[in-house]
Design goal:
By secondary structure, this protein is α/β, with parallel strands linked by helices. Helices cover 45% and strands 17% of the residues. Strands 1-4-5-6-7-8-9-10 form an 8-stranded parallel β-barrel, surrounded by 7 helices. A two-stranded antiparallel sheet has the order 2-3. Helix 9 links the parallel strand 8 and strand 9. Helix 4 packs across helix 5, helix 4 runs parallel beside helix 12 and helix 6 runs parallel beside helix 7. The longest helix is centred in the N-terminal third of the chain and has 19 residues. The mean pLDDT is 93.
Length: 260
């Protein structure tokens, strides 16, 4: 069983437990009672030039503890002050040591759109994301059937949420396009063995139409990486570890932006 399989299994267990506390019908009603979102996440990525999605995460399965000291609200506010276009917040609790509360508090404290970074395996999690204040959810093609992807995207549209649809190979890009994804994230990290290859974005870029937003995820660590991705027409980059390990996040993001 790969780590991705384990993450998906644990997500299903979490959802089953949460449904015992709050039923599916109740969570849907609560989410639908809120004002419909305005797709703020994707709109933030449509501006001219390269956009930056900055990530708040304490740990990862491949790196272990990344940030022993994790003042997540301070980090999010630093990102916003440094000019982040969006903020990605890990809510997966077991391997990434994330929390729904991190997202809820961060979304309430910043004005930039927030992505719920989790392993979505049930539409229940999309409704949850809305209630937590997220503007977007992550949908990973390798975890979902075509039918599930179609369903979850439809729920996102109903709620006014954006969906970052993640692909790792040609087949998954095609799956995302068939589902009508408006944002496709190419993950440079293979979630089955956690190897990283930033050339993955270059290989798959040509498959993504110009009217679909293209995000490069993982392995973006310096200004040179950013410059290369700008050259191939990336609309945005998602940067996690490089920023989380930086002592001065504002200065680090400024240096990355300097590549532009």
């Amino acid at each position: 069983m790969t780590i991705l399989d384990k993450l998906a299994l644990h997500a299903k267990e979490r959802v089953a437990w949460e449904k015992e506390r709050v039923s599916s019908s109740e969570i849907e009603q609560r989410a639908l009672s809120l004002a419909k979102g305005n797709f703020a996440f994707e709109n933030a990525l449509k501006k001219p030039g390269l956009s930056f999605i900055c990530e708040c995460k304490k740990a990862s399965p491949s790196k272990g503890i990344i940030a022993p000291d994790f003042p997540y609200l301070q980090i999010a506010k630093e990102y916003e002050a440094a000019g982040a276009d969006c903020i990605s917040v890990l809510t997966e609790p077991k391997w990434f040591l994330g929390s729904d509360e991190y997202l809820k508090e961060i979304a309430g404290a910043v004005t930039v759109p927030c992505l719920r970074k989790d392993f979505t395996v049930d539409s229940y999690m999309v409704y949850q994301a809305k209630l937590l204040g997220a503007s977007a959810v992550l949908l990973i093609c390798s975890l979902l059937t075509q039918e599930q992807l179609n369903e979850y995207l439809a729920v996102c549209d109903t709620l006014g949420l954006s969906a970052l649809v993640e692909a790792h190979d040609e087949s998954e890009v095609r799956t995302a396009l068939r589902a009508g994804a408006r944002i496709i994230g190419v993950n440079n990290r293979n979630l089955k063995d956690f190897t990283v290859d930033t050339e993955n974005s270059r290989r798959l870029r040509q498959l993504i139409p110009p009217d679909v937003l293209f995000v490069s995820e993982s392995g973006v660590g310096n200004a040179e990486d950013v410059a290369k991705l700008r050259e191939i027409g990336a609309d945005a980059v998602l940067i996690g570890e490089a920023l989380m390990r930086a002592g001065n996040k504002r200065a680090t993001l400024s240096r990355l932006r300097g590549a532009l």
